[in-house]
Amino acid sequence: MDFQVVVLAGGTSEKLSPLVSKDVPKALLPVANRPVLSYVLDLLEASDLKDIIVVVEGQEAARLVGAWASSAYLDRLLVEVVAVPEDIGTAGALRAISKRLTANDVLVISGDLVTDVLPGAVAATHRRNGAAVTALLCSVPISGPSDAASSGGKDKAKKPTRLNIVGLDITRQFLLHIVSGTDVEKDVRVYKRKIRAVGEMEIRSDLMDAHLYAFKRTTLQNILEEKESYRSIRLEVLPYLVRSQLKSSSSGGEGTTVDETGDATVPSNSHLQCLSQHRILAPSAFKKDLLSSGGTYRCCVYIATKSKYCHRLNSIQAYCDINRDVVGDASHLSGYSFSAQNNIIHPTSVLGSKTTIGPQCMLAEGSQLGDKCSVKRSVIGRHCRIGSNVKIVNSVVMNHVVIEDGCHIQGSVICNNVQLQERAVLKDCQVGAGYIVTASSEHKAESLSKKVERF
Amino acid sequence: MSKKSRGGGGGAAAGEDPEDLSRSPLQAVLLADSFTLKFRPITLERPKVLLPLVNVPMIEYTLSWLESAGVEECFVFCCAHAQQVKEHLGKAGWTGKPAAREMTVTAVESHDAISAGDALRVMYGRGVIHGDFVLISGDTISNMNLKDALQEHKDRRKKDPLAVMTMVIKHSKPSILTNQTRLGNDEIVMAIDPETKELLYYEDRADVSNLYVTIDKDILASNPTLQLRNNMEDCYIDICSPEVLSLFTDNFDYQHLRRHFVKGLLVDDIMGYKIYTHEIRSSYAARIDNFRSYDTVSKDIIQRWTYPMVPDVLSFGDRQEIKLHRQGIYKASDVTLSHCAQIGANSVVGNGTSVGENCKVSNSVIGQGCNIGKNVLIHGSYIWDNVTIEDGCKVSNSLVCDGVHLGAGAIVEPGCILSFKVEVGKNVVVPAYSKVALLPQPSNEDSDEELEYADTNSGVTDSPPFSSMRSADHPTVSDDDDLEASETGTCGVVGYVWENVDAGIQEEWRQSIAPIPKDKLEELQHAASFDDDDDGSEDDFKNRPTVLDQDDDSDVSAVEDDDYSKFEKEVEETFQRALDGIHQDNLILEINALRLSYSLQHADCAGALFHSVMRSALVAAQSTNGNLLKTTAEALGKWKDLLRNYTKSVDEEMEILLKFEEMCQENTKEFSPLFSKILPYLYDKEVVSEDAILRWAEEKENADESDKVFVKQSEAFIQWLKEAEEEDEEEE
């Protein structure tokens, strides 16, 4: 396939601190003990998309990602890691690497996407429709939208938080309207001409933009060039494309109004009509019709079925959710085979007596647990040393963590090389890399990390 | 359980629910008055529901359908020309002879109803409706099966008693150029929940100037998916629960069924009434609302889309049987046709009509007892009963009522309406889109016999306004100067030519019988392509909405600021009066009232009042600093109780401090050197507590240097407070 893939892997996001640090950029954050970026890359490999540019913000982060990718995907994928300055936005990142794009179509994926929707299916839809852009839309995940989950749950119960409002045509192929960002909470305003043109438009607020787009390269490059101020694909580039998709080319002025057949009352220059009639015409005719007219483009969508898993790792809450799901409900994503007890315990790990590992758990190689421990719905990384009488529930423990006797950990994330001294109690906490939690201390809903020397 | 019901169709719908013993018979309310003026001038003499549609009065179609759909009791609401409607009902055998029909028809007469809302209020007053009923207007043609819709409605009602109405809708895509449906109705934008079919938004007579459809965010919050459609047509067949009548009675401003009632229910979320839609796909339903729909529906009937509501099946009164021939030609039995007369496809020729030599009739309906001479061309027209058309006439796309006489060689151009007994002289050309009647166009005073509520109110131009009365002053009209000059000049038209509105001529083509002229279409097409260009430039304006929004926001805050300064001023004025001796309690009352009317916070009051006190002190003290300090102390001493009334919490005390600071920095700089001296005084008088002062100092700690001026000024005092606090703690 003549597709180039751009993976926007981010840098060291502030939002995810203290999980993300200089040593662990966002792309390498472990989800079920493998970097989150690997989920996207594996998916691409499965779709036979092998020409990949990974864009990382910041030189140091890029070096780390590059080192990992070249070792992990050697001989499997053609991965090129490119560093761009920090905080230039998704559109900015694309603009920075615009010159490297040569293929007809470009697939842009956010590196923090954990999904089982095949990018190849999106790409195929994109090709079939001859679209300028095809966006992947997913149902809002059951575990709650990740963007909103962190912003307090009090209004969540009342009405579902909306991430996007999209308008689709009757066949649910074309994207006619999109509202995202802060406008989502306002009244919906739909341009009447659009409704007129399609007759029927479906407005949905239960779909999530999954940050996976297929772009026609020329269109993308033109927009990036023309609209220099655009920083975000989701908030600016895509809405712009949707807004202007139906405008007729400048050539379609008065000259084309006289139809060859003479008595046709339908003007031939309006692409609105083409769209409204596409159901009558054979798909191929429709495509030809639009392609021949030039100057316009179509925005399409690929809607993943409800059963597909699709989640973005863009908040700490999302990190916990995804880890839980990948070893739990969406275990097919992890790529591991689960035991009869529905968990994964690496053979090199050592368990003390009367220690139980519940279902939906993962214990990686070289980790040791003392006696009478209990682990439920948690992920434990490599070479952790865990004492006796430790309870770990709903938590993620990364690599080389030392947990001494009698600790209780619930709903927390423990980063690399953390030391938990005896009888520390953590609830809903995040502990940054290398932190030492003192003995018998209790923490609730706190973010603990070593003071970073910043000025 | 006697399953044997009274008739085929009736039994099907009625016998559905045997366990429901309290089931009342299915009722219908038929409005035999459309409460519009669109069929003027014809409706001056005959009610709209009695106008012949393919030679059968419209109401016959509606009643026959209701009967076949299983309605057992029908109330015909008559208003204008009530006598004629009642006579007709008797003559057609609906009323009078009992048991002649499966459906009992009762005429309900009222003369002061001016809208559908009034009609329903009258129906409520009668107390005859007991259960779910079908609400329909007497000009609706349909062959749909009500059973499904009724069942849906009932099932919904069982689950949710608030689902009061089910609207029947039908697919009909409006033309992109004219934005109207083939029935000549304006496009409707509806939002429908695809799952439940609940109607969430309804916009008819779409305002062209409004480019956007705005869906309230709350609607979307409760319905994650909704369909916005403008390819649906409202059939004006509603299945209503009895609550609908009481809703009309409760809301006297509900007049129009859609514009007021439906919109009212959708907007009102207190009562939570819901409206649902029922889409029909294969069956037919249409309401004759204007001349274009009259034309369209006539053609549908001739082409048998409305089967069994077609001329050869529908029996009506004393009419002779009509037979269908090839090519959709309907002929009554005793038609006299000349051998060389050509009756083209899709035409109807009524009983006792004679058509002369070399006539050409196509796509037209000719009524009973007409006399058509030689060489007459009739195309796409509707000729009612007993019309005489002399030789060589040409009638195209027009409507010719009973007893009209067209002189030899007369030409009726497209879109004309010739009302009852109008006479057109020899060789006269009736220009396109004219409306001619024997009765004069009514003026404002005598127009109340059939007053259209909604149209006159909403100022839409396609109904004749009562103001432009130019030609109505000339009883015998032959006054097209051009005509006289051009030809015979001896004969003209007997009757009044009705004036259209000035803009009416432009709009007339939209709802006329005549097809939309080509040049109009081209015009529209150009406009559309221009629009397209605009559409392109929409992108350049794409930020406009957001920019506007931002403007709005800033306006709001500006307004708020403005409000506050007004409030402050008013408080000051009130305070001035207090200085003149109003009792303090009254003052508090007044300030509280002001606060409520400006909907401000309690803290705002504290600030404003403090401001007033300080101002008064400033006024009292004329010049020197010492003097000002003294007067301030006096004022504070005098009003401390009043101020304390508003400083119940630390927040309010903070507000006073901040206000003080603001005053010192801005309009009353006189106080600024005295800040540190007044502050302890405020503390002494217990207007502000030490908590407030300390918090204020704390908050200012991180502020700009310029903001810290006063904190620094009173540093000594704050220090003292802090130490005092520590001492307190130590004592404890």
From TrEMBL, chain A:
<dbReference type="GO" id="GO:0005829">
    <property type="term" value="C:cytosol"/>
</dbReference>
<feature type="domain" description="Nucleotidyl transferase">
    <location>
        <begin position="5"/>
        <end position="144"/>
    </location>
</feature>
<keyword id="KW-0963">Cytoplasm</keyword>
<feature type="domain" description="EIF2B subunit epsilon/gamma LbH">
    <location>
        <begin position="348"/>
        <end position="437"/>
    </location>
</feature>
<dbReference type="Pfam" id="PF00483">
    <property type="entry name" value="NTP_transferase"/>
</dbReference>
<comment type="subunit">
    <text>Component of the translation initiation factor 2B (eIF2B) complex which is a heterodecamer of two sets of five different subunits: alpha, beta, gamma, delta and epsilon. Subunits alpha, beta and delta comprise a regulatory subcomplex and subunits epsilon and gamma comprise a catalytic subcomplex. Within the complex, the hexameric regulatory complex resides at the center, with the two heterodimeric catalytic subcomplexes bound on opposite sides.</text>
</comment>
<protein>
    <recommendedName>
        <fullName>Translation initiation factor eIF2B subunit gamma</fullName>
    </recommendedName>
</protein>
<dbReference type="Pfam" id="PF25084">
    <property type="entry name" value="LbH_EIF2B"/>
</dbReference>
<keyword id="KW-0396">Initiation factor</keyword>
<dbReference type="GO" id="GO:0003743">
    <property type="term" value="F:translation initiation factor activity"/>
</dbReference>
<dbReference type="GO" id="GO:0005085">
    <property type="term" value="F:guanyl-nucleotide exchange factor activity"/>
</dbReference>
<dbReference type="InterPro" id="IPR051960">
    <property type="entry name" value="eIF2B_gamma"/>
</dbReference>
<dbReference type="InterPro" id="IPR056764">
    <property type="entry name" value="LbH_EIF2B3/5"/>
</dbReference>
<comment type="function">
    <text>Acts as a component of the translation initiation factor 2B (eIF2B) complex, which catalyzes the exchange of GDP for GTP on the eukaryotic initiation factor 2 (eIF2) complex gamma subunit. Its guanine nucleotide exchange factor activity is repressed when bound to eIF2 complex phosphorylated on the alpha subunit, thereby limiting the amount of methionyl-initiator methionine tRNA available to the ribosome and consequently global translation is repressed.</text>
</comment>
<dbReference type="InterPro" id="IPR005835">
    <property type="entry name" value="NTP_transferase_dom"/>
</dbReference>
<dbReference type="GO" id="GO:0002183">
    <property type="term" value="P:cytoplasmic translational initiation"/>
</dbReference>
<dbReference type="GO" id="GO:0005851">
    <property type="term" value="C:eukaryotic translation initiation factor 2B complex"/>
</dbReference>
<comment type="similarity">
    <text>Belongs to the eIF-2B gamma/epsilon subunits family.</text>
</comment>
<keyword id="KW-0648">Protein biosynthesis</keyword>
<dbReference type="InterPro" id="IPR029044">
    <property type="entry name" value="Nucleotide-diphossugar_trans"/>
</dbReference>
TrEMBL record, chain B:
<dbReference type="Pfam" id="PF02020">
    <property type="entry name" value="W2"/>
</dbReference>
<dbReference type="InterPro" id="IPR056764">
    <property type="entry name" value="LbH_EIF2B3/5"/>
</dbReference>
<feature type="compositionally biased region" description="Acidic residues">
    <location>
        <begin position="549"/>
        <end position="563"/>
    </location>
</feature>
<comment type="subunit">
    <text>Component of the translation initiation factor 2B (eIF2B) complex which is a heterodecamer of two sets of five different subunits: alpha, beta, gamma, delta and epsilon. Subunits alpha, beta and delta comprise a regulatory subcomplex and subunits epsilon and gamma comprise a catalytic subcomplex. Within the complex, the hexameric regulatory complex resides at the center, with the two heterodimeric catalytic subcomplexes bound on opposite sides.</text>
</comment>
<feature type="region of interest" description="Disordered">
    <location>
        <begin position="440"/>
        <end position="485"/>
    </location>
</feature>
<dbReference type="InterPro" id="IPR005835">
    <property type="entry name" value="NTP_transferase_dom"/>
</dbReference>
<dbReference type="Pfam" id="PF00483">
    <property type="entry name" value="NTP_transferase"/>
</dbReference>
<dbReference type="GO" id="GO:0005851">
    <property type="term" value="C:eukaryotic translation initiation factor 2B complex"/>
</dbReference>
<dbReference type="Pfam" id="PF25084">
    <property type="entry name" value="LbH_EIF2B"/>
</dbReference>
<feature type="region of interest" description="Disordered">
    <location>
        <begin position="1"/>
        <end position="20"/>
    </location>
</feature>
<dbReference type="GO" id="GO:0003743">
    <property type="term" value="F:translation initiation factor activity"/>
</dbReference>
<feature type="compositionally biased region" description="Polar residues">
    <location>
        <begin position="455"/>
        <end position="470"/>
    </location>
</feature>
<comment type="similarity">
    <text>Belongs to the eIF-2B gamma/epsilon subunits family.</text>
</comment>
<dbReference type="InterPro" id="IPR029044">
    <property type="entry name" value="Nucleotide-diphossugar_trans"/>
</dbReference>
<feature type="region of interest" description="Disordered">
    <location>
        <begin position="528"/>
        <end position="564"/>
    </location>
</feature>
<dbReference type="GO" id="GO:0005085">
    <property type="term" value="F:guanyl-nucleotide exchange factor activity"/>
</dbReference>
<dbReference type="InterPro" id="IPR003307">
    <property type="entry name" value="W2_domain"/>
</dbReference>
<dbReference type="InterPro" id="IPR044123">
    <property type="entry name" value="W2_eIF2B_epsilon"/>
</dbReference>
<dbReference type="InterPro" id="IPR016024">
    <property type="entry name" value="ARM-type_fold"/>
</dbReference>
<dbReference type="GO" id="GO:0031369">
    <property type="term" value="F:translation initiation factor binding"/>
</dbReference>
<keyword id="KW-0963">Cytoplasm</keyword>
<feature type="domain" description="W2">
    <location>
        <begin position="561"/>
        <end position="731"/>
    </location>
</feature>
